[in-house]
Amino acid sequence: MTRMSARLLTVALAFVALLGVLAVAVPLRLQREAAPPPAPVPVAVVPEATPGVTPPSPEPPATRVQTVELERGDTLVRALVRGGIGPGTATDVAGLLKKGGADLRRLRPGDTLTITWSGPRPVSINWEASAWLAFTLEATENGWTVRREQVTPEIRVEPVRGGVISSLFQAVEDAREAPQLVLRLVEIFSSDFDFTADTRPGDRFRLLVEKRYAGNRFVEYGRILVAQYRTEVRTLTGIAFDRSGRGRFAYYDPSGRSLRKSFLRSPLEFTRVTSGFTYARPHPILGGVRPHLAIDYAAPVGTQVRAVADGTVGSAGWDEGNGISVLLRHRSGYQTMYNHLSKLAAGIRPGARVVQRQVIGYVGMTGVATGSHLDYRVAKNGVWVNPVSERFIPGEPIATSERAEFQAHTHALIARLEREAAF
Asked: Rounded to 5 degrees, what angle do the CA atoms 144, 142, 66 make?
């Protein structure tokens, strides 16, 4: 073999060896690329418990508070269902409240039910029956339980004073008090003073009144212990005194005479007067000067008209120019007449008995009348008299045996009034 042939043979053998290496390497690389190894599976790592340390518990469901306002005609069950509580649970809650002493008939439009939810579950329901009484139901593992919560009023005696500029109502409001206080003040002197006719700018008042608080929240007025109302010509004084010692308070003047007389000064609560008592008044419809032996009270149609004293209905119904009218007969020869009514109150008919302050009719403008008003008249022994100046039958005075106690009580109250609410 020549040298050239030997070199060619060596090259050929090397080429064959290279092809063998490539045949093994290429399939291995392709197999790796076509089938990569599976991804590693994540493993939860549980931290080792630390001795003496309690692991955190899951978060509780979110809590929310909901209020449901009662609407007219609502029952407790209906209101609870409207708030999202199931009918069966609402019925159970109503039954438990009754057993717990709640009077569900006292539910009023505007009352609120407070429902506390834990997630989708109601866990408590609260109803405040009054400022002094509330009921709370709480859900437990064994069902609902009822808790009655009663608040004892804190009574504070506070002074109030003011002066009339436009009206007594406005004067009391300017003193930062509620209209209810006006009605209580007027009630004390209702037999001695006609606030609808005789209130004037410049009049002044002062009083000591019980106020009832629930904590620091004012709730309502209690008794007026002493009150004074001063006009240009006189000062009215009313002292609350318990004659029987049983909590039955009545009002007296400083000399011990009762302020609750057999006749009220006015058949209306509060209105303005358009015409006074006179024997020479130009008639607004018939013309000429005619006697007007009455007091005219301007008031909206439908205003309640009260009997000024106990008595018996003499007549009731249409009375020509007086329109719808009521005549009452009282003791000691007195009669009172109420004209131009829009209608009579229920049960007012001839022969019926009435008591002082009972509603006997409603203001109108029937008969000969130019506007809505009450024409009020008083007769004594058949003769018309001036309702403003007539001295009616006084009430029962303080007994002689109680005079000393009453005088000491009166002196202490008026002295305190002078200190705390000087005119």
From this structure: 35
For tokens 């003499």, name the residue. 314
- What is the spatial distance between Cα 211 and Cα 218, in angstroms, rounded to a whole number? 7
Question: Are residues 204 and 161 in contact, defined by beta-carbon separation less than 8 angstroms?
Answer: yes
> Which tokens is 176 given?
């930062």
Q: What is the pLDDT of residues 260-279, one digit of tens each?
A: 888 988 898 764 445 555 54
* Residues 237, 354, 278: CA angle, nearest 5 degrees: 60
- What is the identity of the amino acid at 343? K
- Kindly report, residue by residue over 82-111, the tens digit of the pLDDT: 999 999 999 999 999 999 899 998 889 999
How high does pLDDT run on average in the chain?
84
How many other C-beta atoms lie within 10 A of the C-beta of residue 3? 7
- As a whole number of angstroms, the distance between CA 67 and CA 127 comes to 10
Dihedrals phi, psi of 409, to nearest 5 degrees: -60, -45
As given in the structure block, the two tokens for residue 358 are 């009972």
Amino acid at 149: E
372 torsion bin: left (phi>0), alpha (psi -120 to 50), beta (else): beta
Q: In the structure encoding, which two tokens stand for residue 361, read together?
A: 């009719």
Q: Using one digit for the tens of pLDDT, what is the confidence trace for 135-174? A: 999 999 888 999 999 999 999 999 999 999 988 989 999 9
Q: How confident is the model at residue 223 (pLDDT cuts 50, 70, 90)?
A: very high
Three-state secondary-structure class, residue 239? strand
Buried b vs exposed e over 108-131: b needs ≥16 C-beta within 10 Å? eeebebbbbbeeeebbbbbbbbeb
Q: What is the DSSP string of 48-86?
A: PPPTT-PPPPPPPPPEEEEEEE--TT--HHHHHHHTT--
- In this structure, the chain runs to a length of 423
Residues 6+ apart with CB under 8 A from 360: 305, 306, 307, 313, 326, 328, 338, 344, 345, 348, 354
At 414, list the tokens.
């008026």
Q: Are 413 and 241 in contact (CB under 8 A)?
A: no
Distance (Å, whole) CA 141 – CA 383: 80
Distance separating alpha carbons of residues 145 and 96, to the nearest angstrom: 8
Higher pLDDT: 136 or 196? It is 136
Instruction: Report how far apart, in Å, the C-alpha atoms of 69 and of each of 51, 80, 147, 297, 312 are.
Output: 53, 10, 21, 40, 46
